[in-house]
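ok trying this again, last paste got cut off
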Amino acid sequence: MNRNRKTRFVLAVGSLAACFAAGCRAPGMPGPPEVRPDQVMDFNVLYKQNCASCHGEQGHGGIAISMANPVYIAIAGEQTIARAIDEGGPGELMPAFGKKHGGFLTDAQVNALAQGIVTRWGRADALAGATAPPDAATLAGDPAAGKAAFATYCARCHRDTNDRNAKPRNAGPVTDPDFLALISDQNIRSTILAGKPDEGMPDWRHLGTQPMSDRDITDVVAWLSSLRDAAHAATPTQTSIAPQGEQKR
């Protein structure tokens, strides 16, 4: 083999080796099988594709409740989180992600997401031995009592927009009908229970001189829900239009 041919041979072998090292394959050779969407089980991929846009890239800072809140995880539990992912929330902005409810995730993927949230952001000592009220309401709420409980536990940060004499506060007006129209009763309850540590809001244990009871929380949610219902009832849902050529009486 003369020098030129030997040089070309060495270069060809080197190029081929570099190609394989970079993941290239020879023409006609099959590549690695593509993973189907319903076979993706990596938590990071599943969370980014399905949860991050609302709950934040790192589980917080999104428009929805923080997943990276150990208190929320301890109260809700893996089973409740999995059910919320699977079924979504009736009347809520969160859709159902489970296939049997019209979504795109298998049961295994739903469970992988719920387990990953608990494993990554949960903490065994999150409640510090306290017994939290249940995540879901079990009592019938009393709106009148809820207004009083709101004044006791919430008004020091959240101004009641229905009270003209109420002073401005350092947190958002959660009594605003426009806000209430975007949030469900369950979301309100979960927020009271778990707080918003990223925004300086404590959980149910530290909103007053003593922890809020299940009754207190249920009544506050009932009062806020009644404000939403009242605003909805006062807003016309249809506009009556007279037929062409007929004057509206």
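PB: full thing came through this time. The chain has two domains: 37-121, 143-234.
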